[in-house]
Write a structure and sequence with these properties.
single chain, 710 residues, two-stranded antiparallel ribbon, two-stranded antiparallel sheet, 24 helices, 6 strands, disordered N terminus, disordered C terminus
Amino acid sequence: MASPPSRLYSFSKSRIYPQSSGVTTDDVLREPKSTQNRKLSQKRKTLTFQFSMGGHLSPWPTYTSGQTILQNRKPCSDDSWKQVGSSQQYPLSTAKPRYLEQLENYLRKELLLLELGKDSTQELRLQPYREIFEFFIEDFKTYKPLLSSIKNAYEVMLAHQREKIRALEPLKAKLVTLNEDCNERIMAMRAEERYEISMLKKEKMNLLKLIDKKNEEKISLQSEVSKLRKNLAEEYLRYLSERDARKILIGDLNELRYQREDMSLAQSPGVWGEDPVKLTLALKMTRQDLTRTQMELNTMKANFGDVVPRRDFEMQEKTNKDLQEQLDSLRADYEEVRKEHDLLLQLHMSTLKERDQFFSELQEIQRTSTPRPDWTKCEDVVAGGPERWQMLAADKNSDQLVDVLLEEIGEGRLREKDFFPGLGYGEAIPTFLRFDGPVENKKPSKKEVVHILKDAWKERLAQEQKEKFPDFFFNFLEHRFGPSDAIAWAYTIFENIKLFRTNDIMSQFYAVLMGKRMESVYINHKETVAQLQKEMINADSQNEGLLSMEQFSTILKSIFPLKKEEQIQELMEAGGWHPNSSSADLFSYRVLFMENEEGQSDPFVHKLWEQYVNEKDEYLHELKQELGLELHNEVTLPRMRRALMNIDPSLDKQTLNTYLSQAFQLPISELPEEGSEEEEGTKICLRLALEQLQMADVKRIGPRDTESTS
């Protein structure tokens, strides 16, 4: 190997990455390649080496062989030998060159610094070796291409492996996540298995208890059977003894009868006058008959001595049959009792579960719920004192009492207002409220508002209903109060009917005015009440204003044939009937249709309206169940027609078309013909269709097929 060209290096301690300089190997790795080469050359220049041969690169260990050759060679002259001796003084022992020692010392220092660092990695540990290799490449110019290609090949391979590692990092994270998911699934499955095992153990214990109970019942039945057998044997022995005693008694009776006959014959006077030969012959024949009879009797005893008499046999057979029937009935009763016991066990288990659920719910409610309010505190706050509050709170729950209290508070605040702010002229504003600016509050009483609403309904029913209800309402106010005060009365009445929701007249007028309910609902309800009142007047033949409860029940069943018995009973209870009262008791029916000054109806009329609303909700719920669709799905016109006919087969064509027109928001004249393609293409959202039917007067016309057959 040829020795590389020698180069001189200057020594500078401050350029060899001291620990206090702040430069780390991580910073070196993050720098570009050109910057690293430039710093490497500067670092290499700052290193000071003491060469073993006069400042030139030492070819150690090759110089040892050269030394040996020089020693064996004969010198040409003394001057040359001296020159060589003076220029190169080889040591006797082969020591490392200074350049190699400096490189090794530098490598150890760098590795020591990396080991002292907390974030040293394998990539950083390669950096000192790269620098040493760069020194060799730069110093040995002859081998620089080969060494550079070797270094580049290793660098390319390292970069390729680094890219592979980076590509596999997401897969490693995915494997970790997948491993965690699998562990969670395994834990969940183990928990589920433990729960199933515990449930099966509980079921096993319950079955074992049931088996023990059945075994006890079996033992008790066996004891009863053995007891019955014993009683039967005792009865059989008693009957045998009675039979033997009866036979003995019959024999004694026959003997006594024979003795009596013999005594009567001996004492009769006519016997002495008979012929002795004849008597002897008669005695002989009698003895022969007695012998023959005795033989027959012995034969009968021998043949039928152990035979039971027919009467006893029939009695025993009848007794046995009765006992068999009783046993069969007991077995049937036992099966029924066992089934009932099983059902009761199931019911008991379900009741236990419900009890636990209700108990947990009760605890949750007790934990989260607030205490019930003391409504007696409102007596001193509400105008009118305790008497008025007791009248308002009669037969009302907490929710209704909240509405009453809100109405009282709202009424006070409404009376404090002198003006209402105008809502403007927007399209969303109702026509009777379109005004800009302050509007005067007329501050009427509730009685005055109810009176105005009743007059409005009377005028609406008297004229043809051509214009819309909001327009009619505003025209009515203009006609009654004048154009200047119409808008003020419109705002005042609107705020009052929006506030008093518990008042029947106000709430119904508000629903019709805001388009939440059609006018036909209110009109038909009033017609029903009027028809009911007319029927009661007709039933009152003496015009005393009194009816019996039996007549009241008959009238209700005739006007409402589709109502159930419970609904009829609710109406009768609202009218004043009590379960303990007699059907012949009389009551005043005129009170049922009276209203107070504020327009509040009697409980009977209120219950009638409440049943109407519940029946409509039930009817629409049956329609939704028959359609079998979700609320956001669309329903076609033929499907809606079939569903209505299925739940209410008594629907006539006109009423059916009215319901379809209301549901699909089409005039009756524009409804497609049945079976046409246009009918199949007519669709609407089910939720919207049910809302439209909820606004209209929808009710059942006749019973369903199942109800009529039952």
